[in-house]
Amino acid sequence: MSQLEGIRKEMSQFLLPLSVSLAFWPGILSPATSPRWWAIAIGMGMVCPIRGWRRLSPPITILLLLSSLSIFLSIRNPVALGEAIHWLLLGMAFLWGTSLKDFRPIICGFSIGLLVNSIIAIFQYFGWDGISEWQSAGPGGLFYNREVLAELAAPIFVWGAVAASTPTILCSIIPLFLCHSRVAIITIFTGCLFMHLKWWSRAAILGIGIVIIGIISIENYKYFSLFDRLDTWKLALSELSFFGKGLAYWELQHPESHYVHSDVLQLMVEVGIIPTLPILFLPILIIWKSRHAQIAPEYFAIAVALLLEMVISFPLHQPATAFLMAVLWGHLARHCQGAAIIHRSMVQLGQPFSRANTNQDLESARKESP
Q1: How many structural domains are present in the chain?
Q2: Between helices 166-178 and 104-125, what is the axis angle to 10°?
Q3: At what angle do helices 297-312 and 146-163 cross, to 10 degrees?
Q4: Which of 256, 276, 273, 274 is nearest to 316 (CA)?
Q5: Nearest to 102, CA basis, from 292, 299, 291
Q6: What residues contact residue 156 under an 8 Å CB cut-off, 6+ apart?
Q7: Are 323 and 109 in contact (CB under 8 A)?
Q8: pTM
Q9: Would you tell me how many other CB atoms lie within 10 Å of the CB of residue 128?
Q10: Each residue of 9-24: pLDDT tens digit?
Q11: For labeling, which of 7, 128, 162, 176 is most exposed (least CB within 10 Å)?
């Protein structure tokens, strides 16, 4: 029975990210985004028992509470409510991540999903327009546009490059050549080289090669559009406040840009500077502590890559990338033995899900207690 339970958990860890990366329903509003949130909601309902919410870590509790309260500050309550639900789902994904003993099935699921999207993107690149009416810019596979596809592929590629996983690299490399994303190029460069790797290491050479090819292939107009992005950030900085202006504020007031193109800045504008700081403290602490924990370097590399995307783009507003980010940080929070504060809370958080090692984990957490 326990063996069957283990197989079921591993299959869910593979199938859930696969379904999130492939969910697409033409004919509805936002066919490349809404179905992915639905997939996350259905998946979390199946793998994340509600009893675990009684042990949510304080940062996630604060995040969900402030997101809910900010609905009343928003001019468009229905849209704000939708965003609050998205944050709730990401909190559940974080919680689920604390119960995972192995993150590789998650990477495998996203890799296969990227491979399918890459095949579709190749056909789109050579003229197939079967779903182009639902996209803002192709070739984006089953995603909203090519930028979103590339920004999911970039951290998966970083994982593969650092872990020397050829299948992962092959599954994620095609969008990086086809999509011409500046954010993806910066993400790969940072993820592969920020780890203090030797410049002649395999990951560094591979990352530098992708960056050089990407820079050459980017259209000229994208270099000039960088100034538009800087103007958006400048405008967002001018609208900062201590307690925010409500979820969905930016979408209503600045429909021409829709996003700030920086999740950090958008959180500060909508949720507020003071609530955003403790929210950002959690992933930064996790990444810092993961450097001293006994975990493989690819975990640290992909975490840094995703954090950078959060600063210069809007992955938290794209369900696939946001789901990857939430599950990864939850997984790291549980397995960073050096992070005493995080580890103690996450051991209690994951207790209902990991019965086999519960006693050992609790004993390890007690030893870390001051």
Answers
A1: 1
A2: 40
A3: 160
A4: 276
A5: 299
A6: 107, 110, 111, 114, 168, 171, 172, 302, 324
A7: no
A8: 0.80
A9: 14
A10: 778 889 999 999 999 8
A11: 7
